[in-house]
């Protein structure tokens, strides 16, 4: 019977065959221990000299790292194993003998590993991170489907910028100027007026020349947009969504979290509601923490976000930023138009902003004024203004950065490990 490592618990006491690669091995005299991986998980296979043919035992002892095989044996319980099971081998059919695999069990430098990312993905830690990423994606679709959102795919090539054009990749679209998308938000607002509640999930691009551990050039965003929804209601949905994906990872990725030695007690505290702090109070808090140069109207950098997050065990919303440092489409606070109805959600443990959101301007005249202030002209923006002209309603939305969220839940230091093939300032390979 053919099966996978992830399903061996269903076959205790049975003889099965698994297609696998050799991740590592060790042997002592008359027994060989093979560490197998098959893409679904990792498992130990035990080859006893007195239980297999001589050529099989010789093969087991001499096989090279990352050799591929079909391996057949009996599944037995092993409480010492993270998986809880191991295989007692009967026979091995070698598919390909891998020679001189470059990523050995010894330590390698980051640059070397990044140059071999196509192979580094096979390692146990990287495998665990990608499985957690996959679980976040799966739980995301489940959450929004359960809450009656419609999935809408926004274009990657766009003629309009949602924010600062200096951070966009410019390209020639036949005879027109175009950009690689930095967000699907503008298109999702239009879709929300057709379907009520929508979300997108796709790649976004920022030509930001940053080398920090939180930045990628190409990253993935989950972006919900909701008609007839206030900023306050949006914050509640954000809390529910983040709580849901954290609970899903804790439930379905225990082996992966253990492989990463993640302190799950910190994640178990992540329950809605989340604390909130105004931008005004955040400035005061930062001054108390020694950031004496920070002034009202300044944007927050990574050190500021980390310092604020240290005061809370859960993610914290920083709300009502100054309008001048936020995007043109954010709705002003009615009693205080110099600040806007927005929030950044800052993850604990120094992982920074994972969500940015706001209530959008729904008044046609105010949006037209914003257009004039930001010099937004031409057909690339006219359609967005028309959303306010025909049946405008209060609406809100937000965007969650997938890679920063994966880094936080996985407990890894750098976002370059949270995407299969990262695009960094000086890296377009592999």
UniProtKB/TrEMBL annotation:
PROSITE patterns in alphabetical order: AA_TRNA_LIGASE_II
Native species: Tigheibacillus jepli
Its EC number(s): 6.1.1.22
Quaternary structure and partners: Homodimer.
Record localization: Cytoplasm
Protein name from the UniProt record: Asparagine--tRNA ligase
Source taxon at top rank: Bacteria
Domain Aminoacyl-transfer RNA synthetases class-II family profile: residue ranges: 130-430
Top-level taxonomy: Bacteria, Bacillati, Bacillota, Bacilli, Bacillales
């Amino acid at each position: 019977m053919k099966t996978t490592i992830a399903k061996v618990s269903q076959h205790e006491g049975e003889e099965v065959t698994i297609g696998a690669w050799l991740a590592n091995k060790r042997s002592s005299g008359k027994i060989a221990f093979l560490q197998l991986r098959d893409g679904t998980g990792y498992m130990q296979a035990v080859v006893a000299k007195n239980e297999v043919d001589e050529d099989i035992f010789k093969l087991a002892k001499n096989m090279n790292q990352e050799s591929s095989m079909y391996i057949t044996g009996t599944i037995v319980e092993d409480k010492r194993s993270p998986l809880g099971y191991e295989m007692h081998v009967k026979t091995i059919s070698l598919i390909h003998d891998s020679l001189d695999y470059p990523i050995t069990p010894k330590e390698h430098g980051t640059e070397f590993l990044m140059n071999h990312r196509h192979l580094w993905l096979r390692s146990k830690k990287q495998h665990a991170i990608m499985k957690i990423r996959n679980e976040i994606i799966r739980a995301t679709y489940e959450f929004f489907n359960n809450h009656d959102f419609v999935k809408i795919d926004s274009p990657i090539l766009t003629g309009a910028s949602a924010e600062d054009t200096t951070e966009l990749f410019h390209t020639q679209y036949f005879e027109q100027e175009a950009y690689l998308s930095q967000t699907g938000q503008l298109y999702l607002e239009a879709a929300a007026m057709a379907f009520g509640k929508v979300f997108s999930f796709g790649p976004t691009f920022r030509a930001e020349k940053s080398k920090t551990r939180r930045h990628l050039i190409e990253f993935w965003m989950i972006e919900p947009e909701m008609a007839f929804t206030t900023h306050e209601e949006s914050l509640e949905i954000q809390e529910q969504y983040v709580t849901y994906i954290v609970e899903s990872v804790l439930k379905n990725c225990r082996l992966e979290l253990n492989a990463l030695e993640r302190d799950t007690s910190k994640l178990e505290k992540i329950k809605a509601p989340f604390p909130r702090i105004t931008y005004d109070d955040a400035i005061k808090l930062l001054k108390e923490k020694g950031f004496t140069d920070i002034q009202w109207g300044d944007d927050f950098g990574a050190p500021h976000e980390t310092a604020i997050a240290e005061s809370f065990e859960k993610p914290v919303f920083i709300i009502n930023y100054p309008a001048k440092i936020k995007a043109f489409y954010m709705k002003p606070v009615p009693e205080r138009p110099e600040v806007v109805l927005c929030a950044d959600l800052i993850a604990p443990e120094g992982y920074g902003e994972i969500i940015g959101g706001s209530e959008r301007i729904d008044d046609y005249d105010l949006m037209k004024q914003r257009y004039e202030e930001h010099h937004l002209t031409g057909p690339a923006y006219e359609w967005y203004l028309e959303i306010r002209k025909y049946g405008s309603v209060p609406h809100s939305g937000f965007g969650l950065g997938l890679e920063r969220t994966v880094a936080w839940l996985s407990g890894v230091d750098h976002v370059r490990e949270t995407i299969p093939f990262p695009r960094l300032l000086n890296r377009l390979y592999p």
